[in-house]
Design goal:
240 residues; alpha/beta; Spore Coat Polysaccharide Biosynthesis Protein SpsA, Chain A; seven-stranded mixed sheet; 9 helices
């Protein structure tokens, strides 16, 4: 399976967005693809994914935990192959937002456009303290109570599982949970030891779930083990 030092991890919930994803994957030959898909995809749909890529690992998952639980399921596999870096993306539609499609397309381009990827990898390879790289304008702070009020309980639950305490819960996170990461920067995710049944059933929730809490923890966990998070436009890359 492993041909490169860097992995792409994509959760494809909306099959109609496969062409959009493939158009970027196919132009990044230095990435091994890991794609999680919901169990309701047909054999024909799975076959189309497998036929579209030369080197791809496909994992069926239950429709729980949005893109977060599938990522937690794939992350140990990424570690076992000793990848250096990964890029996490997903087929995010955000139908509750008028600009949902625009936000997705911009994030995907800023993370996977072939003109940008070499600069991202150069930054990760030359600065050992960079742990995560986020799309521009995606970093938010929990100091804004709107991002915390519905997620405090689940955040405290996750921190307690890790034996950590942060009573202020005042740290930044990457809205949309799409980013580049040094694999080692996320190593504490394994210590959460979460099970599928720990995640709520999918009911179209907009906030307050375990998945929303973990979305808010990626940067914090990286910082806890000595890494920092930067937006892509602050690593010497020009984005439109």
């Amino acid at each position: 399976m492993k041909k490169n030092e860097n992995a792409l991890v994509a959760h494809l919930y909306y099959f109609d967005l496969l062409p959009e994803l493939l158009s970027l994957i196919e132009r990044n030959v230095n990435l091994d693809a890991f794609i999680t898909i919901p169990v309701h995809f047909s054999r024909e749909q799975v076959g189309e994914i497998l036929a579209s890529l030369d080197n791809v690992y496909v994992l069926r998952v239950q429709n729980r935990g949005r893109d977060i639980l599938p990522f937690l399921n794939i992350y140990p596999i990424i570690k076992s192959y000793s990848y250096a870096n990964l890029v996490k993306v997903h087929s995010k539609k955000s139908p509750q937002r008028a600009d949902g499609a625009l936000l997705r397309k911009r994030a995907l381009l800023e993370l996977l456009d072939p003109s940008i990827v070499p600069g991202v990898l150069r930054a990760l390879n030359t600065d050992p303290k960079i742990g995560l790289i986020a799309p521009s304008n995606s970093l938010c702070s929990l100091s804004n109570s709107d991002y915390l009020i519905n997620n405090r309980k689940q955040l405290n639950y996750c921190l307690s599982r890790l034996g950590l305490v942060d009573s202020s819960l005042n740290f930044e996170f990457i809205a949309g949970s799409m980013f580049w990461a040094r694999v080692d920067a996320l190593r504490m995710l394994s210590d959460l030891s979460l099970r599928e049944e720990d995640f709520e059933e999918e009911l179209g929730q907009l906030d307050g779930t375990l998945a929303h809490a973990i979305e808010r923890l990626f940067c914090f966990l990286g910082k806890h083990v000595g890494y920092r998070t930067l937006p892509v436009d602050q690593i010497g890359i020009s984005v439109a």
